[in-house]
Design goal:
50 residues, mainly alpha, elongated
Length: 50
C-alpha cells in the first residue's frame, strides 16, 4: 500500500483508514482526510517503519 510509505505508525494508519471510510460523506470529511495525511506524513517523515 502506498500510504505506508508516508504514514509509518500503526495507529496513524488506523486513523487514515477510518477517515478514508468516511471520505465521500461530505466536504468536511474530505478536508479532514487531506489535512490528516499532510500533517501525519510531515510528522513521520524521519521515522522508520514499524
Amino acid at each position: 500500500m502506498k500510504i505506508d510509505k508516508y504514514i509509518k505508525t500503526e495507529c496513524g494508519r488506523d486513523k487514515y483508514h477510518k477517515l478514508k471510510r468516511d471520505y465521500n460523506k461530505n466536504i468536511i470529511s474530505k478536508i479532514r482526510l487531506i489535512l490528516y495525511v499532510i500533517i501525519a506524513s510531515a510528522r513521520d517523515i524521519f521515522r522508520r517503519s514499524s
